[in-house]
Structures are given as structure tokens and as C-alpha cells.
């Protein structure tokens, strides 16, 4: 696979361009505005310098940046091997982009969207040759999170899904192919099921955010990075799961909206980015916590990456 084009130089695109280049791929970072490309150059240079300081680079940073072209031009699409689109999460915007780009790329190019919430099939309606188009959903930060969800839309061929899966493996990721175009794909469905229950417990007044977070981190969450719910179930015994789910499922929260989240959003309590959410982040504590999270994600991956729970 050559000529990777990462479209959109926002939060995801900038890191993905570096990730592809660090994995040896000639990469083009495309963005419609020059100002974002300038910021992308700076961010990538800074992140590579930090990686070098940590001893995480096997080559000089300039060798990696030498594989990245930054452009606003559409001409590179004409020789693309893979286009991964990371532009605004808006169906009309994505369709406009794909209508134009899918008419430019070679017939055998692979096309993927990093959409978090839109249905792949809905975006695919604008794609010329939708068989070669799929979802390729990275988690943020995409250099540190191992999961990539490859979603098949109604028209996506098995061959496309397999090729994108192989590409994700070559980035050191742990990709999964999702056969149906379901909202939230896999990870967000699981994550939001937990979030809904956490908000439900809060509303019951049984515990506060500190206790609920501790219960997750030191209870189920502690083992979730090495075992999924089915692996956990097999170890615990499915007779126990059957008995407990019989009384617990009917008691779990089933709210369709959350008043707590609505109130926080209305009050501008958005979390780290506004200095307060469920907790306070006074005096710029947020960036420090984010850096610490990244450091811990790196350490956790070092520890777990070659140790699957099942052989
Ligand atoms: N941020 C995350 O946590 C995350 C995680 C996984 C997937 N995603 C998905 O990745 C995609 C990008 O998210 P992001 O967080 O990087 O967004 P972002 O807002 O940081 O960047 C969006 C980019 O889209 C470009 N853009 C906006 N309108 C455009 C248009 N009309 N034509 C061309 N380019 C346009 C902007 O210039 C910008 O570079 C979205 O689909 C999002 O759902 C985001």
C-alpha cells in the first residue's frame, strides 16, 4: 500500500498522518485551509521531538516528516492508494467531499471514513464505487488507542474490509471488522451503556462520581483492558451470569436522555476544556491530566500488547 491520503487536518487527521508516516507509509495530509496545515506541521514536529526524547523513534524525526506531504491540492487524490477522511462530522459535508474525491481516485483505491456517529451506508451514497468504501474508526488519541473498528456499509465488499483490516494491523493496531452498519459501532455502544448506568446510579443517589469512577477503575475496568465481557463471563461461569442478569437487567437504567448531561452542557460545565465538569480543573490542570493519561496509556500498552488472555 502506497500513497495514503489523510483528509482533514484536525484533532484526528494530524495524529493519523504522523502514525502512517511513522509506520513507513508515504503520506499526504490534505486540508482545505492552509492555516490548519501550518499548525499540523508544528504539532507533528513537536510530537516527533517528544517521541524521540522518550526513545520511541527508531529513526530521526526528519525521516518521518520527509514522508509527509502537506497540501490543499486535489491532484494527489488521482494517485491515492487509500484515502482516510477525517473532516467535520456532518453528513452533507462528508457527502460533498466524497462525491468529489471518489471521482478522482484510481479505481482500486481504498476509501474510508473515520466517522464516529454517522452510518457508513449514508455517507457511501455519495461515493462512486461504494464497494471499496468502509468505516475505519480510530479512537482518540489514535496513536495510543489500539482499537480500529472497520465497518462494512451495505455495499462494502469483504475484500475492502480485509484490506483495511490488514492495513490497520500494519500500524500496530488491534482492528475488528463489524459486519453491520450499527450506530455507535462496537466501542461506543459499550461505552455509552456504561455511561448510562453511571448516570442512573448518580440519579438514584447511591453514589457520587468519585465512588462510581473508583468502582469502574478498580473493579470491572481494571480487567477490561485484558478481557472483554464474554471472556470475563467464561471465567466467572455462565450459570452465575444467567442468574444475576435475570434480576439485574430489569433493574438497570434505560433512560433515553440524561438530565445531568443536559444541565452540565447548558451551564458550560464541559469538563477539562472549560475547567470544570463532574470534577474541577482549576488553573489549567486539564493539560497535565491529559499528558498523564497519555503516559499511562503508553505504559499500559507496553505491558499488555503481547499478552492476550487466551492463547
Ligand atoms: N476527536 C475525536 O475524538 C474523534 C475520534 C474518532 C473519530 N472522530 C471523527 O473524525 C472526524 C474528524 O474529527 P476531528 O475531531 O478531527 O475534527 P476537527 O474539528 O478537529 O477537524 C475537522 C477537520 O475537517 C475540516 N473540514 C471542516 N469542514 C470541511 C469541509 N466542508 N470540507 C473539507 N474539510 C472540512 C476542518 O478544516 C478540520 O481540519 C469526525 O468525523 C469525527 O467524528 C473524532
Describe this structure in words.
By secondary structure, the protein is of the alpha/beta class. It folds into three domains: 175 residues, 3-Layer(aba) Sandwich (Rossmann fold), CATH 3.40.50; 68 residues, N-(1-d-carboxylethyl)-l-norvaline Dehydrogenase, domain 2 (Orthogonal Bundle), CATH 1.10.1040; 44 residues. An eight-stranded mixed sheet has the order 3-2-1-4-5-6-7-8. The model has no long low-confidence stretch (mean pLDDT 96). Nicotinamide-adenine-dinucleotide (NAD) binds next to helix 1, helix 4 and strand 6. Nicotinamide-adenine-dinucleotide binds next to helix 1, helix 4 and strand 6.
In the CATH classification, which architecture of the largest domain applies?
3-Layer(aba) Sandwich
Strand content: 5-15%
CA distance, first residue to last residue = 30 Å
CATH superfamily of the largest domain: NAD(P)-binding Rossmann-like Domain
Give the distinct bound molecules: nicotinamide-adenine-dinucleotide
Number of strands: 8
What structural class results from the helix and strand content? alpha/beta
Give the overall average pLDDT. 96
Per CATH, the class of the largest domain reads: Alpha Beta
Which descriptors would you attach to this protein?
N-(1-d-carboxylethyl)-l-norvaline Dehydrogenase, domain 2, binds nicotinamide-adenine-dinucleotide, alpha/beta, Rossmann fold, 311 residues, 8 strands
Amino acid at each position: 500500500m502506497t500513497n495514503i491520503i489523510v483528509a482533514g487536518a484536525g484533532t484526528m487527521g494530524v495524529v493519523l498522518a504522523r502514525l502512517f508516516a511513522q509506520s513507513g507509509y508515504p503520506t499526504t495530509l490534505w486540508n482545505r485551509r492552509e492555516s490548519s496545515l501550518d499548525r499540523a506541521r508544528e504539532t507533528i514536529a513537536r510530537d516527533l521531538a517528544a517521541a524521540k526524547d522518550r526513545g520511541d523513534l527508531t529513526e530521526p524525526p526528519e525521516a518521518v516528516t520527509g514522508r509527509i506531504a502537506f497540501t490543499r491540492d486535489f491532484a494527489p487524490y488521482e494517485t491515492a492508494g487509500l484515502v482516510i477522511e477525517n473532516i467535520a462530522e456532518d453528513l452533507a459535508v462528508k457527502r460533498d467531499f466524497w462525491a468529489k474525491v471518489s471521482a478522482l481516485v484510481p479505481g482500486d483505491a481504498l476509501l474510508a471514513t473515520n466517522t464516529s456517529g454517522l452510518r457508513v451506508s449514508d455517507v457511501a451514497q455519495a461515493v462512486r464505487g461504494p464497494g471499496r468504501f468502509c468505516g475505519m474508526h480510530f479512537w482518540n488519541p489514535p496513536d495510543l488507542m489500539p482499537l480500529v473498528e472497520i465497518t462494512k456499509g451495505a455495499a462494502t465488499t469483504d475484500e475492502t474490509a480485509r484490506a483495511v483490516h490488514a492495513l490497520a494491523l500494519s500500524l500496530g493496531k488491534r482492528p475488528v471488522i463489524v459486519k453491520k452498519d450499527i450506530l455507535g459501532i462496537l466501542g461506543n455502544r459499550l461505552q455509552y451503556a456504561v455511561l448510562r448506568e453511571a448516570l442512573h446510579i448518580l440519579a438514584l443517589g447511591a453514589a457520587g462520581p468519585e465512588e462510581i469512577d473508583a468502582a469502574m477503575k478498580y473493579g470491572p475496568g481494571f480487567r477490561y483492558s485484558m478481557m472483554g465481557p464474554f471472556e470475563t463471563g467464561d471465567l466467572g461461569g455462565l450459570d452465575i451470569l444467567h442468574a444475576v442478569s435475570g434480576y439485574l437487567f430489569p433493574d438497570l437504567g434505560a433512560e433515553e436522555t440524561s438530565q445531568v448531561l443536559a444541565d452540565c452542557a447548558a451551564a458550560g460545565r464541559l469538563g477539562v476544556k472549560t475547567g470544570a465538569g463532574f470534577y474541577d480543573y482549576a488553573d489549567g490542570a486539564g493539560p497535565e491530566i491529559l499528558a498523564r493519561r497519555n503516559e499511562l496509556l503508553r505504559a499500559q500498552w507496553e505491558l499488555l500488547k503481547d499478552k492476550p488472555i487466551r492463547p
